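Q: What would this chain look like folded?
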Amino acid sequence: MFGLLNLNKPRGISSRAAVDVVQRLVRSNKAGHAGTLDPLASGILVVCVGGATRLIEYVQQLPKRYLAEFQLGQESPTEDIEGEITLRPNDPQPTLAEIEAVLPQFTGQILQRPPAFSALKVAGKRAYDLARQGKEVTLQPRPIDVFSIVIQAYNYPTLTLDIRCGSGTYVRSLGRDLAEALGTAAVMSNLVRTEIGDFTLATAVSPDVLTTTNLAEHLLPADRAVQRLPRVTITSEEMIELGHGRSISLRGTETEEYAALSTTGKLVAVLLAKEGRWWPMRVFAKEE
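A: My prediction, written as structure tokens:
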């Protein structure tokens, strides 16, 4: 098996549990997800199957879209409702206009401090493990890309945002920082990932409906993982060269990476342009 599954992960289960459903169906084939969703969150979880697991990093790099709900005037160590919540009744209750006024501060390339309860490593240990032990965890701010934030609904204390962002963005921390700019705090109460690249929620399938009989009809072409790369069609002779680890002649404008397709339109390799040649980075000829 060689392809991608656009899953609609339900709230209340981990991303690993959703992948395990697929793993049981594909048996000896590998399966892995591209971008964790916490149990609190639901929505798109792209699962790579078979040789397509070697394309996970490309899916992770795709832009994402979320519908996020926050409760203002509250805080928790996890920055969501999974942690112990502390109410802040004396905090100001921002108006819709005040929220709209601070949104530009959080769009474009910004620095974001990841949450203490995250999978990032500190001195070789997961930050959330240290945080659960009661140890102080301070992570350094990192650059992230936030393409847009649109207010979907607001009825204090509930604020719902439509967020488009790049990889590495912690949505709950975005809510934390937005609230701080308004003189208050916030916890994330719900999160739905509605898009990853051109994977949409409208075409996602629940893991509960997958069976060994219908799995193949839900398997998407592996080239969807490299949708942001320029494409080139290669000949069978060139495919043989790539299969032996040899380079082929570069055609057209040189960019860093290309998705190489067979004459039947299947992804057969990811190529690196270097020194006027195309070099194989990943070869999938046997998967085609």
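The first strand starts at residue 2 and ends at 9.
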